[in-house]
Specification:
alpha/beta, Spore Coat Polysaccharide Biosynthesis Protein SpsA, Chain A, Rossmann fold, 3 domains, 10-stranded mixed β-sheet, 6-stranded mixed β-sheet, 14 helices, 40% helix, 18% strand, globular
Length: 442
């Protein structure tokens, strides 16, 4: 068999999850695949599970990760791969059974350097499971078309996960795109992700949700606050590789600064308060060297640019403002809970990632929503986290005195006006900017 796709699965002590991961790969509708599991000497039974799968399926290969580095593990697969395309699946995640077939067909049809798609994060199992559907691009115009990242800077604002797609192996090898082989697993997809976009001349983003990313593995490396500065290590690696490839620094500097700031700000919001000043100092040190008048300011969102300029002005002021934001978040959270306590029935308007995060947060505070409301005809009649997604007409008839919590990233005010126009009292509506009320899950 000549495989069409090589899938690499780096693994280390993922006994509870590896079976589901391998089932989702080996049962793909595209059967012409090879699967390279690179294991870092697991001691919890993971290797025994892999061995049993190997006995049943000759497409599965087990290789030792002698460096205990996921970067090294993924590079091994790039070197070993026999297929024209390369995919990555983390060993505690799983994929839809038609993911590889659909990505492969689109890659062949378009001839792009790589094709990607949307994904979902999740936690829990069975009745206790929560899904958070994610869109990779904030700009809807980035979908379903061939784009050149060098002429389309918004590509560098796509969610920074490498495992969302299929890469043409000849592209990776020709451009010498590799992973940084630092120990462990924290943030080692960052360098690969950025260098892929910096070198690509054609990419494609599908609207499908294929990949399921687990958020509740307590041993996931991204949960280790001690690795907060690893993201800075990755960007140093990116800088060195850009120079080696003779990519014009001025052509990529704006994207580098924006992504460096964005990635580190995400980490900043996750780590312990004692580590925040250390990370902020490192952020300012790096950005001060490359942020100047030649930067394309349009690549930054307004909020990002305001935060960045404050950071460059004063670390102390930046930390103080962020502390105020945290306090405001707690106040907004209090207002949200006061509002939902007034209504017997709670409806969330917006059956997307924000709405799902809101449902999960309310559940943690012992409030259960009755249903979602959404104007998207494709969502109506489906379920999200066990709750129906209803059109407004049915929601109004079924829940006459409900409290509507509007949870939409872009159109919240428009939805508020729409609900009022439809006869919903403004006392029954609470517009929840969830990013300012509760912590957002990945």
């Amino acid at each position: 068999m000549n495989p069409k796709v090589t899938v690499v699965v780096p693994s280390f002590n993922v006994g509870p999850y590896i079976g589901k991961c391998l089932d989702s790969i080996l049962n793909q509708t595209l059967s012409e695949i090879e699967v390279i599991v690179v294991d870092a000497n697991s001691t919890d039974g993971t290797r025994e599970v892999i061995t049993k799968y190997m006995e049943r399926d000759s497409r599965l290969i087990l290789v030792d990760d002698i460096k205990k580095s996921t970067g090294y593990a993924k590079n091994i697969a790039i070197d070993m791969a026999k297929a024209p395309y390369y995919a990555i699946v983390e060993s505690d995640d799983y994929i839809e059974l038609d993911m590889l077939e659909k990505l492969y067909k689109k890659a062949e049809e378009t001839g792009v350097d790589f094709v990607k798609a949307n994904f979902s994060t999740f936690l829990g199992e069975g009745d206790s499971r929560y899904d958070f559907p994610k869109t990779v691009a904030a700009n809807p115009d980035d979908y379903e078309k061939v784009l050149n990242p060098q002429n389309h800077p918004s590509c560098f604002k796509w969610i920074m996960f490498e495992w969302l797609g299929l890469y043409r192996l000849s592209f990776l090898r020709e451009k010498e795109i590799r992973h940084n082989e630092t120990p462990g697993a924290a943030f080692q997809d960052t360098g690969f992700w950025f260098l892929s976009f910096a070198n690509a001349s054609s990419v494609y983003l599908m609207k499908d949700h294929f990949y399921h990313y687990r958020c509740d593995n307590p041993y996931a490396s991204v949960k280790d606050p001690k690795k907060a500065l690893n993201i800075c290590v990755e960007y140093d690696y990116i800088y060195r590789k850009l120079k080696e490839r003779s990519i014009n620094w001025n052509d990529i500097k704006s994207e580098y600064c924006r992504d460096f700031f964005y990635d580190n700000y995400v980490v900043f919001n996750r780590i312990d308060k004692e580590l925040k000043p250390v990370l902020v100092s490192e952020m300012r040190s790096v950005l001060a060297k490359c942020f100047d008048s030649s930067i394309n300011m349009e690549i930054f969102d307004k909020g990002e640019l305001e935060k960045l300029e404050l950071l460059l002005k004063s670390e102390e002021d930046f930390l103080a403002v962020e502390k105020d934001i945290e306090n405001k978040q707690l106040e907004n959270e209090k207002q949200l809970l006061e509002k939902v306590s007034l209504g017997k029935d709670i409806l969330v308007y917006g059956a997307g990632s924000y709405g799902s995060n809101l449902q999960y947060f309310l559940h943690s505070k012992d409030y259960e929503i009755q249903a979602y409301v959404d104007s998207d005809l494709k969502k109506q009649g489906t379920k999200l986290n066990g709750k129906e997604v209803l059109p407004l007409s049915i929601a109004r008839e079924r829940y006459k005195s409900a409290m509507y919590i509007v949870s939409n990233k872009i159109h919240s005010e428009e939805i508020f006006t729409y609900l009022v126009d439809q006869g919903i009292s403004d006392e029954q509506i609470f517009v929840c900017d969830i990013s300012k009320c509760v912590k957002i899950l990945i």
